[in-house]
């Protein structure tokens, strides 16, 4: 059976991406990163719950402690407040420097070891916070680098099935594929109840609203 490494944060986008991989006939190797993010514990729970629902046998939970040492992001440096004023132009302070580049490099090493032919990542360019490592241009570039820097017999595709979707389209696609969105976690700030006001919560809630669907995770503010 063909194999795919799925980078699975436990959020809505990466979860849908993983279910799409399963739907496309891949045996999934799930990879989750603990990188000192504010909601690390809750995201890990979501990852494990989703892996159980997908009946994934092979999974990696990888600790990357150096992100907190680097800082420069509200997600990994608690001296920087997570913005709650709404999505603004430019790259927000929740951007973690080159996070997806580092994630994809590690995922590529796992893919090479496991003889996987694809890496799935739930990046969204069209309707997102404006992170530079979530663009189609970036993914194309790093795909070339990965295939240049691995064995000649290693051929890895990086698949981004959501990159051009809007959040409401992501919600509707997830419902179509029976994705358990109630198991996912998107909030940047809180682990018990989602804050409802950070960029990630706003994008998620707006997606559910436009899709005319109910989001069943608990929120502090609605």
Outline the structure in words.
The chain has 222 residues and is an alpha/beta fold. The protein contains seven helices and five strands, in the order E-H-E-H-E-H-H-E-H-E-H-H. It is globular, with a radius of gyration of 16 Å.
- Structural class from helices and strands? alpha/beta
Percent strand: 5-15%
Instruction: Describe the global form.
Output: globular
Q: What's the Cα radius of gyration? A: 16 Å
Could you spell the SSE succession in H and E letters?
EHEHEHHEHEHH
Tell me roughly what share of residues is in helical segments. 25-40%
Report the span from N to C terminus. Answer: 44 Å
- List unreliable stretches of 5+ residues: none
How is the largest sheet built, in terms of strand order? 3-2-1-4-5
Count of helical segments?
Answer: 7
Number of strands: 5
pLDDT averaged residue by residue: 96
Largest sheet features: 5 strands, parallel
Keywords:
222 residues, alpha/beta, 5-stranded parallel beta sheet, 7 helices, 5 strands, globular
Q: Secondary-structure blueprint of this entry?
A:
Elements: E1 3-7, H1 12-23, E2 27-34, H2 40-54, E3 58-63, H3 66-70, H4 99-114, E4 118-120, H5 136-148, E5 157-159, H6 167-176, H7 199-210
Parallel strand pairs: 1-2, 1-4, 2-3, 4-5
Précis, in short:
This protein has 222 residues and is of the alpha/beta class.
């Amino acid at each position: 059976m063909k194999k795919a490494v799925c980078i699975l944060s436990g959020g809505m986008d990466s979860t849908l991406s993983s279910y799409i991989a399963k739907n496309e006939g891949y045996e999934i190797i799930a990879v989750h990163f603990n990188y000192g993010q504010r909601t690390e514990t809750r995201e890990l729970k979501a990852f494990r719950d989703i892996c159980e629902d997908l009946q994934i046998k092979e999974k990696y939970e990888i600790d990357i402690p150096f992100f907190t040492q680097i800082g420069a992001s509200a997600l990994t440096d608690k001296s920087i407040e997570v913005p709650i004023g709404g999505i603004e132009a430019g790259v927000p302070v929740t951007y973690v420097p080159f996070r997806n580049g580092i994630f994809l490099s590690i995922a590529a090493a796992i893919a090479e070891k496991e003889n996987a032919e694809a890496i799935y990542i739930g990046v969204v360019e069209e309707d997102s916070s404006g992170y530079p490592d979530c663009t189609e241009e970036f993914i194309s570039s790093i795909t070339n680098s990965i295939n240049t820097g691995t064995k000649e017999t290693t051929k890895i595709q990086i698949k981004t099935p959501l990159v051009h979707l809007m959040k409401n389209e992501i919600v509707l696609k997830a419902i179509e594929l029976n994705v358990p969105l109630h198991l996912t976690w998107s909030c940047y700030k809180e682990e018990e109840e989602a804050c409802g006001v950070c960029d990630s919560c706003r994008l998620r809630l707006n997606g559910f609203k436009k899709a005319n669907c109910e989001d069943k995770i608990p929120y502090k503010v609605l």
